[in-house]
């Protein structure tokens, strides 16, 4: 089982994905790469001797079986570079992560229609409103919104995706043992529990250190066919993401804002340099050349009219029996029968006791 060797590599904090990829490309097998000695590593052209020595020293204390067990015991899923399910778009970037750790359902996200939203952590009200309006235009489609689970534009992007029945992927700059910022705990939970996936290249215990944030940006843009910048000052992480987008050969789009806002100075620079202006969701679809499928068709064709009142209420977030009954006004026996039928038809499923959510 190769996964344990990928995980063992990921557990060494001093290594980066470039080093691991060099070894994997040279040996053609991750187990052989992990077990290589220093004399074998010195034969690899361009490999840092210092990193090779660090690796050989650190791996003496690592048991690959234990590192894998440590991750799996946390109910964390693992996707490795040699897996056929590894995201195609991410594989194309110059420095792809060798291992992705995630919670949630990555396979339920449409990785063929991914668009990133990035921007200022101290976004203005109008900046947040602009992002929300653009994402709302994409409501009930098969698009997947990718962002970084930070405050500001990131959080609004994820929340708007959830509110508009879109899947979303949050790429974080730490291991999954850490929630940063802590104020986004509920957002993490929503994404993990039916609305998409929270993903990272970092081993669960790794902390959200400052240098990891620009590193994770390449994954946000790398997963995506295009990036939309919501708000950005002239010197900001969002501009780093914008440059990465162009370097990766992806489409760069910007939402314009008030010209007297310092957080739009970066936006207008990007627009002057050739980025596409976005004011509606349709602008994104046109830029990327996408036609979308909507869940309205699913409603019409798959959901009987008698189920729609409940189906529309539960949405993608689980709701309790009492809450559903209050909103529908149904009698207890009537609602119980309806919920049972909907479960049998595969429209909804129970979670957390008496709560119900859609099966998407």
Structural topology:
Blueprint: H1 3-10, H2 17-27, H3 30-34, H4 38-41, H5 49-58, H6 64-72, E1 77-80, H7 88-91, E2 99-104, E3 114-118, H8 125-136, E4 144-147, H9 153-163, E5 167-171, H10 185-195, E6 196-200, H11 212-222, E7 226-229, H12 237-247, E8 251-254, H13 265-272, E9 276-277, H14 281-288, H15 295-302, H16 308-314, E10 319-320, H17 321-328, H18 332-344, E11 348-351, E12 355-358
Parallel strand pairs: 3-4, 3-7, 4-5, 5-6, 7-8, 8-9
Antiparallel strand pairs: 1-2, 2-6, 10-12, 11-12
Helix pairs in contact: 1-6, 8-9, 9-10, 11-12
Notes on the protein architecture:
This protein has helices at residues 3-10, 17-27, 30-34, 38-41, 49-58, 64-72, 88-91, 125-136, 153-163, 185-195, 212-222, 237-247, 265-272, 281-288, 295-302, 308-314, 321-328, 332-344; strands at 77-80, 99-104, 114-118, 144-147, 167-171, 196-200, 226-229, 251-254, 276-277, 319-320, 348-351, 355-358. Helix 8 (125-136) runs parallel beside helix 9 and helix 9 (153-163) runs parallel beside helix 10 (185-195). It folds into 3 domains: 1-65, DNA polymerase, domain 1; 104-288, Rossmann fold (3-Layer(aba) Sandwich); 295-358, Winged helix-like DNA-binding domain superfamily/Winged helix DNA-binding domain (Arc Repressor Mutant, subunit A), CATH 1.10.10. The protein is α/β, with parallel strands linked by helices and 360 residues long. Residues 296-302 have low confidence and may be disordered. Strand 4, helix 9 (153-163) and strand 5 (167-171) form a beta-alpha-beta unit. The strands form 2 sheets. Strands 1-2-6-5-4-3-7-8-9 form a 9-stranded mixed beta sheet, with helices on both faces. A 3-stranded antiparallel beta sheet has the order 10-12-11. The chain contains 18 helices and 12 strands. The chain is 44% helix and 14% strand.
